[in-house]
Design goal:
- This protein has 19 helices and two strands.
- By secondary structure, the protein is mainly alpha-helical.
- It has one domain: MFS general substrate transporter like domains (Growth Hormone, Chain: A, Up-down Bundle).
- It has a two-stranded antiparallel sheet.
- The longest helix has 29 residues, at 153-181.
- Residues 1-12 have low confidence and may be disordered.
- One of its GO terms (molecular function) is peptide transmembrane transporter activity.
Length: 489
């Protein structure tokens, strides 16, 4: 292949990967393996925390275990701030992505090899920090493959999302099989092997990414390196002190992450909006992103309950009998990725076919929230049932609705973040979208305390109604939001 072909700017006219730039294949692969390890581990994490010691678990209270899982999930997306800052000020997106993958692998190894609470603590901290660095930067690098006006952008992000969900499908299935036959630590070990495979694959393709992926958007002056290191060490010591003194405990971890994510989001919006490095058009687009951010929080606070309330529901209420064999609990978390795999291509084709006639980003977001709320209302016919009374087909149907809602909001949100981002805050704008996921995920863990298997109607109906109202609010205000977005749809 000629040098000219390899250096095509932004993948322009390069359609070698299912109509998308070939460089997308490298990012597709590393994200697929990272999600294999992430969802594979998360598929067995909650039950590891609350299963009894005799069953190989840690024997924690279910509400506390759910709060930990929600707080961990929120921390992953909260860590995108750190990952984005390192990318924009120190290393660039591509190198940050590479080093983050190494940290993730180390976290899974810790979960596999270190016993008890120590393994959970060290492992989840490393996975959260590494995943935060990888997520925002992988998305940012995908954005560098397309010029702003390229109509393939949303389709490309949908294809990238397919890679995420291929990993999300196989991860819980294989780790769940190992957990149910050999034990939890073998499942965690498989997650580490998956991340190692992703790291090896990405190492071969990373040099073929566009130069823009390696650019440091806003380099930190060298005379400020020492200050940054001191702040990082001080922050770590303060966090350790809060844990050791009992200010931060397993019981309030989700609340702590909610507060941290809220403060971080407010601060992030304030920093970007008041920066002298953005012009009036960029500032207006950031304001236009705000209602999308709020809608995203509402969406993820329901959607991420797949890993909290729905896991408990699947363990106790779902009939998992398959011809006399009981399906592992974690397999329920592979249902959604199956639908994503099937439907992401359909949605990508629809957006490509419609081109400029497709619904605007605010309308897609609004429909995603409304449909997500409707999915929660679908639990109501099965409320109050006995143990193992909910048919597997019912959960499959409900998760199908989850998937439709997700495809209307999640890949579109990633794409919108890159389109609306000021040039000086490119990766950090993606991190801002992930902050909405962080806040919603932490809320999903905090909500576990209100879930009562003996009185489910208020829980599912109230949360479903709130999401629907938020979606309708955005739908009604779609035109003024579009006006703020200044030509971005």
């Amino acid at each position: 292949m000629s040098t000219a072909q390899e250096a095509r700017p932004h993948g322009e006219r390069d359609t070698r990967f299912f109509g998308q730039p070939w460089a997308l294949a490298h990012l597709f692969g590393v994200e697929m393996w990272e999600r294999f390890s992430f969802y594979g581990m998360q598929g067995i994490l909650l039950i590891y925390l609350y299963y009894s010691v005799t069953d190989g678990g840690l024997g924690l209270d279910k509400a506390v275990a759910g709060g930990i899982v929600g707080a961990y999930g929120g921390s992953v997306y909260l860590a995108t701030i750190l990952g984005a800052w390192i990318a924009d000020r120190l290393l660039g997106s591509e190198r940050t992505l590479f080093y983050s993958a190494i940290v993730i692998m180390a976290g899974h190894i810790a979960l596999a090899l270190l016993p008890g609470v120590a393994g959970v603590g060290v492992g989840l901290v490393l996975v959260a920090i590494g995943s935060g660095g990888l997520k925002a930067n992988a998305t940012s690098v995908v954005g560098t493959l397309y010029p702003a006006e390229d109509p393939r952008r949303d389709a490309g992000f949908s294809l990238f999302y397919l890679g995420i969900n291929l990993g999300g499908f196989f991860g819980p299935i294989l780790t769940g099989l190992l957990q149910s036959t050999l034990g939890f630590h073998f499942g965690f070990g498989l997650a580490a092997i998956g991340m190692a495979a992703g790291l090896a694959q990405y190492s071969f393709g990373r040099r073929k990414l566009p130069a823009e992926a390696h650019r440091i958007a806003n380099p930190l002056p060298r005379n400020r390196y020492a200050t940054a290191v001191i702040i990082a060490i001080a922050g770590g010591l303060i966090l350790v002190a809060l844990v050791l003194t009992g200010v931060i405990t397993a019981d309030n971890l989700a609340t702590v992450v909610i507060i941290a994510a809220t403060v971080a989001a407010v601060a992030y919006f304030a920093v970007i909006l008041t920066s002298r490095r953005i012009n009036a058009t960029e500032r207006s687009r950031v304001w236009g992103f705000l209602p999308l951010f709020i809608t995203s929080v509402a969406f993820w606070s329901l959607y991420q309950q797949q890993f909290t309330v729905l896991t408990v529901y699947s363990d106790e209420r779902l009939n998992r009998d398959l011809f006399g064999w009981e399906m592992p609990v974690s397999w329920v978390q592979s249902i959604n990725p199956v639908f994503i795999i099937v439907l992401s291509g359909v949605f990508a084709a629809i957006w490509t076919k419609l081109g400029a006639r497709q619904p605007s980003t605010p309308v897609k977001f609004a429909l995603g929230a409304i449909i997500m709320g409707a999915a929660f209302l679908l639990f109501l016919p099965f409320a109050g049932g006995a143990a193992n009374s909910t048919p597997l087909l019912a959960i499959i149907g409900i998760l199908f609705v989850f998937t439709v809602a997700e495809l209307l909001l999640s890949p579109i949100g990633l794409s919108a973040a890159t389109k609306l981002a000021p040039s000086a805050f490119h990766t950090q704008m993606v991190a801002l979208f992930f902050l909405s996921v962080s806040l919603g995920t932490a809320i999903s863990g905090w909500l576990v305390q209100f879930y009562d298997p003996h009185n489910e109607v208020p829980y599912f109906s109230i949360l479903g109604a709130i999401a629907i109202v938020v979606g309708i609010g955005l739908l009604v205000s779609a035109k003024p939001v579009l006006a703020l977005m200044k030509g971005v749809r």
